[in-house]
Amino acid sequence: xxxxxxxxxxxxxxxxxxxxxxxxxxxxxxxxxxxxxxxxxxxxxxxxxxxxxxxxxxxxxxxxxxxxxxxxxxxxxxxxxxxxxxxxxxxxxxxxxxxxxxxxxxxxxxxxxxxxxxxxxxxxxxxxxxxxxxxxxxxxxxxxxxxxxxxxxxxxxxxxxxxxxxxxxxxxxxxxxxxxxxxxxxxxxxxxxxxxxxxxxxxxxxxxxxxxxxxxxxxxxxxxxxxxxxxxxxxxxxxxxxxxxxxxxxxxxxxxxxxxxxxxxxxxxxxxxxxxxxxxxxxxxxxxxxxxxxxxxxxxxxxxxxxxxxxxxxxxxxxxxxxxxxxxxx
Length: 330
Prior knowledge:
Order of helices and strands: EHEHEHEHHEHEHEHEHEHEHEHHH
Oligomer: single chain
Number of helices: 14
Helix content: 40-55%
Radius of gyration: 21 Å
């Protein structure tokens, strides 16, 4: 059988505390399956326990052989990409690594100095074994020590059939939010320190002095995924204050719902917001951020985000990644 017509990709994804892998990685894999890829996901049970890693190492050999793998694709750096590089080496298979941001960016504030340093070093070392590398933003690619020539910039796409505009009143009724409130949406995720929730709260307090009806809704990772599009359609502004990002999916998802965004310059947000109105990129200054948020709330206007982000749809991103697989197989 022609490999290019039946590309068999075995993905390695870190298992999270909730029991599965990173949702944005799984969504991208699903979009590739819909584009004609034959895929299987191998969840890496631990990135810290040597015994579990060794057990997964031998288990992976069996899974790969049974699946008749053509390409190994690691979704994340650090231990995950290093594990994948070892597997690809011993199995003599091509390796694709996607770096998402926190696997290359400095996360010492959250992970501690040594864990952060070791993780980022493993990311860089594993890049030497990659056949191709995918970086979710230009800034991530620039941080690679080696292998820049084989690195492509492809952000994570957005499911446009899931994230789409809904009338604000309808979304607020679903969430029991008053029509009189001005909602600032903030994504704290699993790492609120990196997302700088402290700055977001200071911004909210400053905005509330001038706009008493302002309220901040925090997505802390416990909100049901199917409710997130309703929060984006119910809100008046998305606020992003992160120290570092790769290509923040929350911004793209918000723009697909036509939600205005106020953000510091992190990851590829400046590119995402190019031509989007109303939305703003601001410096990491409390007054500038709070003034920009207040201005968006006073405008009370949806953005033109969806019409400007056609290239960020999961279907378009799947085409680009599938092309990389084809080039490797050829």
